[in-house]
């Protein structure tokens, strides 16, 4: 599947104890037909009141706590199977809700953002995470500097720029910033241009997956960081390379992400080795 071009594999592991191994993830990603950004593995529930446990695996084999675009894909797949309803999921980032609307758009309640330095986490104490000391490029003329940081369950840094987000070599700076010592659990790195209070243009270098066409949690982080630095309102369209997402930071502090999901094709997958066969066209 894909969520605005964010390449997602939904792996149905209900009724089994199997998990997608890091080796399998790396092997699957090495094949051009199955290159992906995240695998969303659907497992039986572990907590009463939730319908499914979702494990999220990056293309480098590491686990992610949250994935907004992938959650929309999961909601679409389950809606196709069970009919439209509100689904309740458990992830490493907590309890997430998702629902498909009549028009096919899918909204996911991603929970509440966190801003304390130890929640992101950062390796250094910052009283105010709306702007933290971090820069790349010449010391007196940094290319990117002073990001806002936030946790949407997973760590995000939003670098604000006034010019074209495509004029920055995110493929070069992304890996350096992702692995900067300030971030003990690494970080998803975004460049944001605020067009107006209701629109942000965003590119993201994802932790564990690299440059992607879309990153839902990064869109959420950009919006909450935009709102708390008074760059935007609490609801905005976030334009990512793959298209438009809508992010709404509700009064109850929950962040709701809305956008499309698209089924591509299906097959059978061995979660231990990553071996697969294609069995069904879209
Ligand atoms: N594509 C995802 C984000 C994956 C985050 C992952 N790269 C990490 O935190 O390690 C999204 O739509 O939110």
Can you offer a commentary on this structure?
This protein has 282 residues and is α+β, with helices and mostly antiparallel strands. It has two domains: 2-111 and 261-276, Diaminopimelate Epimerase, Chain A, domain 1, CATH 3.10.310.10; 135-253, Diaminopimelate Epimerase, Chain A, domain 1. It is 16% helix and 36% strand. The protein has helices at 22-30, 68-82, 170-178, 216-228; strands at residues 2-3, 6-12, 38-43, 52-58, 63-64, 87-91, 94-100, 106-109, 135-136, 144-145, 148-151, 155-160, 188-196, 199-206, 210-211, 235-240, 243-249, 255-259, 265-269, 276-281. It has a 16-stranded mixed sheet that branches. The radius of gyration is 18 Å and the shape is globular. The mean pLDDT is 97. Residues 6, 37-38, 58, 64, 67-70, 154, 188, 206-209, 212, 215-217 line the site of 2,6-diaminopimelic acid. It comes from Devosia chinhatensis. The active site is at residues 67, 215. Belongs to the diaminopimelate epimerase family. Its EC number is 5.1.1.7.
CATH C-level class of the largest domain: Alpha Beta
Biggest sheet overview: 16 strands, mixed
Question: What would CATH call the architecture of the largest domain?
Answer: Roll
> What is the CATH H-level superfamily of the largest domain?
Diaminopimelate Epimerase, Chain A, domain 1
What characteristic shape results from the CA principal axes?
A: globular
Number of strands: 20
Q: Report the uncertain regions.
A: none
Number of domains: 2
Which class of secondary structure composition applies to the elements?
Answer: alpha+beta
DSSP helix fraction = 10-25%
N-end to C-end Cα span: 9 Å
Strand content: 35-45%
Q: What is the alpha-carbon Rg in Å?
A: 18 Å
InterPro entries: DAP_epimerase_AS, DAP_epimerase_DapF
EC number: 5.1.1.7
Main location: cytoplasm
GO molecular function: diaminopimelate epimerase activity
């Amino acid at each position: 599947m894909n969520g605005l071009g964010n390449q997602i594999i939904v792996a149905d592991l209900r009724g089994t104890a199997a998990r997608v191994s890091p080796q399998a993830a790396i092997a699957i990603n090495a094949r051009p037909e199955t290159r992906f950004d995240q695998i969303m593995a659907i497992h039986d529930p572990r907590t009463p009141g939730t319908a499914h446990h979702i494990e999220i695996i990056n293309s480098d084999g590491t686990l992610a706590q949250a994935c907004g675009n992938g959650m929309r894909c999961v909601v679409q797949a389950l809606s196709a199977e069970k009919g439209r309803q509100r689904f309740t999921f458990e992830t490493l980032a907590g309890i997430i809700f998702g629902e498909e609307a009549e028009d096919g758009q899918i909204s996911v309640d991603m929970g509440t953002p966190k801003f304390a330095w130890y929640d992101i986490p950062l390796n250094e104490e910052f009283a105010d995470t709306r702007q933290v000391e971090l820069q790349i490029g010449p010391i007196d003329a940094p290319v990117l500097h002073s990001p806002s940081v936030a946790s949407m369950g997973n760590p995000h840094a939003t670098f604000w720029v006034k010019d074209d987000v495509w004029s920055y070599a995110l493929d070069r700076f992304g890996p350096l910033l992702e692995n900067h010592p300030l971030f003990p659990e690494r970080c998803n790195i975004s460049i944001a241009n605020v067009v107006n209070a209701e629109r942000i243009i965003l590119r993201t270098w994802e932790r564990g997956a690299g440059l992607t066409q879309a990153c839902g949690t990064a869109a959420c982080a950009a919006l909450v960081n935009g709102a708390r630095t008074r760059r935007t309102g609490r609801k905005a369209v976030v334009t990512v390379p793959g298209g438009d997402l809508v992010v709404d930071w509700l009064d109850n502090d929950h962040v709701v992400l809305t956008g499309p999901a698209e089924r591509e094709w299906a097959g059978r997958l061995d979660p231990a080795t990553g071996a697969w066969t294609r069995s069904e066209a879209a």
